[in-house]
Amino acid sequence: MKITRAVVPSLFTTLNIFCGFLSIVNASQGRIEMAAWFIILAGVFDSLDGVMARITKSSSQFGVELDSLADVVSFGAAPSFMVWKVYLSSIESWGVLIAAFPLVFGAIRLARFNVQLSGFEKDHFKGLPIPMQAVTICAYILQYYSQDYGLTGWPKDALAPLTIVLGLLMVSRITYDTLPKFTRRDLLAHPWRVVGFGIGALLVVFSKGQLFFAVIASFVGLGIVRAAVRWVRKPAETEAEEDAETSNIEV
After folding, report:
1. What is the dihedral of CA 95, 98, 102, 106, to 10 degrees?
2. Where do transmembrane segments lie in this chain (predicted)?
3. Nearest Cα to 67, choosing from 48, 54, 82, 83?
4. What is the Cα 107 distance to its own chain's centre?
5. Domain annotation covers residue 45
6. In the chain, how many domains are there?
7. Looking at residue 22, what is its pLDDT?
8. 125 pairs with which residues across the strands?
9. For 14, phi and psi rounded to 5 degrees?
10. Residues 46-69: what's their mean pLDDT?
11. DSSP of 165-182, one letter per residue?
């Protein structure tokens, strides 16, 4: 059997899937924090498979499809089961429906992404990336969940709205930046993206993880704010263009 360079990124994608499975196993046994960490580890492998594909120059349609299948497991099924196990199972039918948001809307988002994919290099995503949605849920649970008491107070009540909002953001038209590649070309093209990522990483490290959810939530919120600014500016720009056309006609 001939082993090609494409095996390298596929290996990391396989580790991604395996981490998703381990997350489901741990959540089923009540080890919620461990389940969350396995999803985050799956996110690390998900990033590394793209890096390896670029290094080995082995990007392929097979890799894209395998990556999507892995993402459905690790960032769709695993977080859906985890939020259901943490609290949403206590609200019966509505809980099942809401808990399904990461899986259902994540699958829709990935299908749309694969259909619209042109080339293997991406500058931005349309809709919140499914790994970011899953990591946001994990950061929230790691921030507020206690192995002894579970979720209590307002964090318990906010879990369902958070799950719904993140699910809808995945299928929205809001654009989100890709992670910086730390290449010379990327540093010159998107310096603020690299700076923002670096600041966020430093905040998480120096706070010993206490600001993890705040940093992730800021990234998610930034996309919403930018979309709102564009929506406000668009009518003004359209009106300005119409005024310019009217002036040209009058002249």
Report:
1. 140
2. 7-28, 34-56, 94-115, 127-146, 158-176, 188-206, 212-229
3. 48
4. 13
5. yes
6. 1
7. 97
8. 176
9. -65, -40
10. 79
11. HHHHHHTSS-EEEPPP--
- Cα–Cα distances (Å) from 79 to 27, 36, 61, 175, 187, in that order, read 9, 8, 26, 22, 33
Which residue range forms the structural domain that includes residue 18? 7-179
Q: For residue 84, what is the domain's CATH number?
A: 1.20.120.1760
Q: Tens of pLDDT along 213-245?
A: 999 999 999 889 988 888 888 765 555 554 554
The burial of 217, by beta-carbon neighbours within 10 Å (0-12 exposed, 13-18 middle, 19 or more buried), is given as: middle
Nearest to 132 by CA among 76, 49, 189: 76
**Among the ranges given (131-145, 168-182, 231-245), the one the predictor scored with the smallest mean pLDDT:** 231-245
For residue 222, give the H/E element and its range: helix 212-250
Examine residue 211 and state whether it is found in any structural domain, yes or no.
no
Residue 237 domain-assigned (yes or no): no
Token pair listed for 153: 């107070």
Residue at 228 is within a domain: no
The residue among 90, 43, 98 whose CA lies nearest residue 70 is 43
